[in-house]
Amino acid sequence: MQARGDHFLILDVREPYEVEECSIGGTCLPMGDLLDHLDEIPRDLPVVVHCHSGRRSSAVVDTLSTRYGFNNLMQLTGGILAYEAEAKPAMNRA
Q: Is the Cα dihedral 4, 79, 20, 63 positive or negative?
């Protein structure tokens, strides 16, 4: 899996067309394809999962934790929408 940093991986579970519209970086692995690529998700690094609003990433974190034993997952609460809302005021101050 690409986009591995030294300390964590950002996993974007949105569809590729959504990533083209707005991205904070990381690896795109759409939610619908996730189970076919479990072996590509690191278990030795923290993984920050995000989507558009937080619904898909919440479901992914829940599924990977409870069914597949991942214990290194975090969710970007509120997804890209919340990230943009937080970033815009900071950008306007700059």
A: positive
